[in-house]
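Hi support team,

I'm filing this because I wasn't sure whether my run with adenosine-5'-triphosphate finished correctly. The job status page said complete, but I'd like someone to confirm that the output block is well-formed before I use it downstream. Pasting the exact inputs I used:
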Amino acid sequence: RLGVLSSRTCRAGAGVVVSATRSPGLGNAGNLREGSNLSKNWDLSRQIGDEHGVLIECRDVHKSFGDKHVLQGVSFKIRHGEAVGIIGPSGTGKSTILKVMAGLLAPDKGEVFICGKKRQGLVSDEDISGLRIGLVFQSAALFDSLNVRENVGFLLYENSKLSEERIGELVTETLAAVGLKGVEERMPSELSGGMKKRVALARSIINDDTKETIEPEALLYDEPTAGLDPIASTVVEDLIRSMHVTGKDAMGKPGKIASYAVVTHQHSTIRRAVDRLLFLHEGKIVWEGMTEEFTTSTNPIVQQVMQFMPQFAGTLFRRYSFSVGFVLPCGYFDICSLPLAAWMVQFDTSEDLSNCSVEYSTHSY
Ligand SMILES: Nc1ncnc2c1ncn2[C@@H]1O[C@H](COP(=O)(O)OP(=O)(O)OP(=O)(O)O)[C@@H](O)[C@H]1O
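And here is everything the job wrote out:
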């Protein structure tokens, strides 16, 4: 699986090798993989040097709607390679800060820096150079009167010089990357909620591949799993993770999203798709840290608010996957190379299984 930092392989008896991998929190500039798509196309040293790989920085951001002071001095940084979750009680300004980051709302006071460059007001063409920022809305926000191909290729049809045929190919490739095939001609009303979210994801990552420089891309997701059943949520959560540069997309290609921030109320999204958390409360970031530190935080505000947000209480589970292969006289075969019965299980547990051993039995036929 993705973002694996530690991996153990232990022999669990004659003939079978069980490898257990753990996916702990990670995510800073130092975790960027050499040789990823991104590092080929982008001069990392330009960003990581003095700026320490900071892609987006909000500094003392304030935003009011009428007499409602929603953001009251929000400051944080999102670095290259990070998977950040933004959580907090309802109405505390999470969607508002995403829109400020995306350049759709201008702060009343405070500053937003994109790759170290101060953004003036709303997003403009000159702001775009240096970092592509995509915002995936909670509602998916597809155009109802356009089919999937037109929705996904919308920006390219409008703004690029690519031929319709080439845009069609890019749409098909991008849809495949989010695990959708053969839906190009469907209308949004013919898609399930989870499919709509994936189409919205495809629309936010489609790229004009004829451009000389392909910039790093940050995606901002506003409650990407809201309204989905647990299985559809899992698909979207894993997709978000897989499009990150540290992983591979649904087509097995390296992910292309440099960093992402996700606003969520869902425990499973935090567990599966987030490494670092920003906790927004009453218009300010009151706590930030790695995901697993959140539930053990002694910060009184975190403890107080957690009483009212039971979904965040309790242990944030560790995630393990076990893949089983067979040791044959001619070598070890993992599940991918064997068409025989072989399986892979994933589960979450609060136990530390780093030193586990596995017992099994076999039957001959
Ligand atoms: N364009 C707007 N005009 C007026 N008020 C707004 C606007 N956008 C947001 N608000 C108000 O700002 C507050 C924060 O809204 P926001 O959507 O950012 O909260 P949130 O933390 O994302 O909430 P939730 O978790 O319920 O989605 C809310 O009271 C909302 O009504």
